[in-house]
Amino acid sequence: MKVKICGITQESDALFCEKIGVEYLGFNFFKLSKRYIYPEKAREIISSLRNAKAIGVFVEPEIDHIEKIVGFCNLSGIQIYADQSVEFCNRIRKLFPKSIVIQAFRIRNTIPENILAFESDYFLFDSFDPEMPGGTGKTFNWNILPLIEPVAHKSFIAGGINPDNIDKLFSSITPFGIDIASGVEKSPGIKDKEKIKKIMERVTRFNEKNT
Description:
The protein has about 210 residues and is α/β, with parallel strands linked by helices. It has helices at about 10-20, 40-45, 65-75, 85-95, 145-150, 165-170, 195-210; strands at about 1-5, 25-30, 55-60, 75-80, 100-105, 120-125, 155, 175-180, 185, 190. It has a single domain, classed as Aldolase class I (TIM Barrel), CATH 3.20.20. It has 7 helices and 10 strands.
């Protein structure tokens, strides 16, 4: 199981995450987010990484904006929130053939019926909030996790995951990865290294147990 720490704003946090084995780091380019990062700052942080994959998080469906930042920041991947549009997701897939594409869904009580029509590399299931597309610190209804099982091998689970509830999640599903922002923070965009350590310890134990 992989770990993605989202909402990176500090180089020291990024380097710490990479050092202890976090494979994916999320950089939020949604300007209304409390974890928004300027492209110039993101580029500086990403240039210091050796192994972790830098994923840009985009909400506005503006292709030119995405293309500019992907190139400028040297992103490894693109995470999109685009009203669950198959057309937009598949267009991104074609326009960025060398990038990892993660299609994010904001979950209420089910998953999209047409999910297999999305040509992304991965899915990400997050909590629905009318005000903010992610980073809410709230879990969605984990009773629907069995619905995700057929695509779990290519899915990240997000939304309110933290060191206190991660074992409950593991008892319900084995996803490709987990995505955490607020669950390992001191404040928005400022990470808590002890919480990240606890998450990685639990994920390591889970992986060892299931290999």
